[in-house]
Design goal:
The protein has 2 helices and 4 strands. The protein has 105 residues and is α+β, with helices and mostly antiparallel strands.
């Protein structure tokens, strides 16, 4: 005989296992896409490659080349001697706002 408490524990264990497996698979897909990211050289042709991309966005790209930091290079806490630089960060957001008074965008 199985008690209701045991069934409840088994059910919640299965639910949590399913949730964690789903999250694991989602992160594994992202990691695979990062590993398959194209490696581009920093140069004058980079803006042309971005503007030619679908939606003017490259989801995952590894940039290689020499860039100079504005203040100090970013260092890794996990790998000694590994440094990086954020050369330029640009975020554009376009929002449409519904105006209920004139019923238009």
């Amino acid at each position: 005989p199985v008690s209701p408490g045991e069934l409840l524990c088994l059910g919640s264990s299965l639910a949590f296992s399913g949730l964690f497996y789903y999250l694991y698979r989602k992160k594994a897909r992202v990691a695979a896409r990062i590993q398959e990211a194209p490696k581009l050289q920093v140069g004058d042709d980079l803006p042309a490659l971005v503007s030619a991309a679908d939606g003017r966005c490259l989801p995952y790209v590894a940039l290689e080349g020499i860039v100079l930091p504005a203040k100090a290079a970013l260092t890794s806490h996990y790998h000694e001697g590994m440094q990086g630089v954020i050369q330029k960060l640009l975020l554009k957001e376009h929002r449409l706002i519904w105006n209920s008074l004139v019923r238009s965008w």
